[in-house]
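Example for tutorial group B:
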C-alpha cells in the first residue's frame, strides 16, 4: 500500500485526518520468492512520517485480532502491518492489547531487546540462548510503533544500560530510528540495530532471506553482546 498509494494515503487519509484503518500484508522480507518488487521494506518509515497516523506491527495472530479491535474503537487513521508467513503464537488467549504501550515479554537487567512483528519470536529465542551464557535480557514487544512508548524505552535504558532493536524493515526510519531518537534525547546508552541494511533483498525462501540479511536470533545475540561491551 505505501509504495504504490502513498500519495493517496497522504492526501486522502492523513491530511484530512480521516478515521480509516489500513490492514496490510506481505510486509518485510518474508514474502520470499516474490522478490524485490513485492518486499515492502520501507513502508514503516513512510507511514510513520505522516502526522496523526497510528502504526501497529503485531507479533502473532492473537495480537493482530486485539490490535484490529483497538484500532476500530479509536478515532483516527491506523496502519496495521502484517507479514506473509503464519507466525507462531507468543501470546495466550487472555492477552490484552494496549495501544501505545510496550509489552514486557521477558525480564532481565543486562540489556534490552526491543522487537516488532515476527522478530519478537526471534528476540525471545535470543534471550533464552543468552541466559544460558549468563546474560539476562529484557524483551519488549513494541507493537505500537507510533505513538511509541517512550516511558518504556527510557526505563529500559536506565535499568539495563544497553538496547538492541530488531525489525523486518530497513535500518533507516523504522523501529531502530524511533527508539534511538528517544534514547538520544533522554538516556543515551549503547545501541545495536538488527534490521535490513541499505540494500534491496534477493528472491528466496523466507528463512533463507532472514538469515542472509541478518534477521535471526543469532544476529540478535551478537548485537546484545556488542552493545553490552560498550556499556559504561
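The residue assignment follows.
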Amino acid at each position: 500500500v505505501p509504495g504504490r498509494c502513498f500519495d493517496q494515503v497522504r492526501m486522502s487519509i492523513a491530511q484530512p485526518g480521516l478515521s480509516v484503518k489500513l490492514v496490510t500484508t506481505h510486509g518485510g522480507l518474508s514474502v520470499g520468492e516474490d522478490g524485490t518488487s513485492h518486499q515492502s521494506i520501507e513502508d514503516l518509515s513512510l507511514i510513520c512520517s505522516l502526522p496523526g497516523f497510528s502504526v501497529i506491527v503485531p507479533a502473532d495472530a492473537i495480537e493482530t485480532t486485539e490490535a484490529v479491535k483497538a484500532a476500530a474503537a479509536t478515532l483516527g487513521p491506523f496502519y496495521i502491518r502484517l507479514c506473509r508467513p503464519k507466525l507462531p503464537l507468543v501470546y495466550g488467549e487472555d492477552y490484552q492489547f494496549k495501544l501505545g504501550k510496550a509489552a514486557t515479554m521477558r525480564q532481565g537487567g543486562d540489556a534490552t531487546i526491543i522487537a516488532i512483528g515476527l522478530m519478537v519470536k526471534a528476540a525471545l529465542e535470543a534471550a533464552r540462548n543468552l541466559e544460558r551464557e549468563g546474560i539476562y535480557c529484557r524483551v519488549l514487544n513494541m507493537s505500537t510503533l507510533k505513538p511509541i512508548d517512550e516511558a518504556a524505552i527510557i526505563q529500559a535504558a536506565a535499568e539495563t544500560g544497553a538496547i538492541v532493536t530488531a525489525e523486518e524493515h530497513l535500518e533507516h526510519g523504522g523501529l531502530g530510528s524511533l527508539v534511538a531518537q528517544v534514547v538520544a534525547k533522554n538516556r543515551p546508552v549503547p545501541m545495536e540495530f538488527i534490521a535490513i541494511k541499505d540494500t534491496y533483498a534477493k528472491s528466496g525462501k523466507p528463512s533463507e532471506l532472514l538469515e542472509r540479511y541478518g534477521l535471526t536470533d543469532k544476529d540478535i545475540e551478537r548485537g546484545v553482546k556488542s552493545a553490552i561491551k560498550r556499556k559504561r
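Residues 2-14 form the longest helix (13 residues). Compare this with the pattern of hydrophobic and polar residues in the output above.
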